[in-house]
């Protein structure tokens, strides 16, 4: 069995290596691209559409789902990740066999070798762990591989997101020349808002126990990031020593208020006795940022309206966070101590951050010009972006639910076990939500049989504060 697995794994890795090598050697035809443009006027053909759909399925759905299945040590982890790997290879070759639209040298193609090397590393480590080589030096190597496998697993969603953005930019020929700077600002900041929303969703649904154990309030971490990000924006939004142009002053002033408010938020995140305390500073920063963006001067009317709706969305996110902390939770960290049943109102802030992120990423100069030329109203465009935000919000909640069902459920056998004095077998059992929610980390990306020890015994081992 091990020999067969090893041979199949070696074949898969060899195929991945050849794919990565081809990524560097392949050159697209560019004879139909007009001078000064990044893409040809040809339509996207069916092969390229299939490439997009297959890669979206493999990288956008299967790999993240397989990651969660690995965390819960499901038997479906390996099949799902293997299917995703095979589809990604098929999609890669289709991307080099398409006709129709041609592309100049672009960041999407240049990033492919990096993405494939990361995939090769992840697959190779997964195969090594499945072989269960534990004797001699393999015992030490195995510990390193388990940790490295988890680190690469944590990087994968970020890498996938970046490559998807590169793909969209390349397909439309955007973000070149003078547009590069504002593209970077929109896509980085928009992605940051979405990432913030995802983190808040995770903490809301499965992270409250870790937050309690950390001895810090949510606002401490929020304010720390806000202060750091504000310092970066203060010194990067304007090229110091040159004339102030367009919106430089407004961007820089936003950076200043971020680090000033962030420092206040850090200070207010503890009581006098050192215990964590909630505060409203991060919510106020989001609200003020939204107000500033709603009045951001733009060239095109459609751009002005999209930026206005983006600003209103951020203002709503800040306002709902203030209401949540002050009136729904009344300065508590959660409605219940384990955070297992959040109030329905608490979902609003994360979702509005998702929507705000997509609105900001979709408001670049080139995108607005395309809308203006096509006579698309801002209402239609905003509704489409909100729809995408809903879909991502749904997907993130589904992945967290997949984890939580395993982590917070009591098995049927436990529920039906003989009870003495009201407890199974006469012994008090720890709350499975408390026990398993502490294991929310990517260290378990290996399969369910990575260790010889059965899962049931693993779940009952004492946990340490290092988790999560």
From TrEMBL:
CDD domains: Cyt_b561_FRRS1_like. Residues 428-437 have a biased composition (Basic and acidic residues). Residues 414-468 are annotated as: Disordered. Residues 33-132 form the DUF2427 domain. Residues 1-25 form the signal peptide. The chain crosses the membrane at residues 49-71, 78-95, 107-131, 151-172, 184-207, 280-297, 309-329, 345-363, 383-404. InterPro entries: DUF2427, YTP1_C. The keyword Zinc-finger does not apply. Keywords: Membrane, Signal, Transmembrane, Transmembrane helix. Pfam families: DUF2427, Ytp1. Residues 438-454 have a biased composition (Acidic residues). Residues 160-403 form the Protein YTP1-like C-terminal domain. The keyword Translocase does not apply. This is Integral membrane protein-like protein. It comes from Trematosphaeria pertusa.
